[in-house]
Amino acid sequence: MTMLAHTGGPFKPARYSSGGRDITGTGTANARLAMIKRLSKFALAVLTVGGALAGIIALKAAIFLSRLNF
Question: Which positions ≥6 away from 14 have C-beta within 8 Å?
């Protein structure tokens, strides 16, 4: 029962192991790293789609110009 009782006094908040604060700041660093990774994956996907679209347009233009008779 003593493990469950709050013995810190009336003005000191209870300390909970599951809700403890992150003093070192690694949680913020990990969140920022995850956000940067997500952003870079999105940017890579957009660039890949743009490159594929440009390739298709170039192929269509080459086919059209090769069939054009002067």
Answer: 6, 8
Amino acid at position 46, single letter: V
Contact 32, 25 (CB under 8 A): no
**Looking up tokens 């003093």, which residue turns up?**
23
The contacts of residue 57 (CB under 8 Å, 6+ apart) are none
Cα atoms in the 13 Å half-sphere on the side-chain side of 33: 6
Per-block mean pLDDT, blocks of 10 residues, the chain (70 long): 61 62 72 94 98 98 88
Instruction: Give the tokens for residue 24.
Output: 């070192």
* Residue 9: strand, helix, or coil: coil
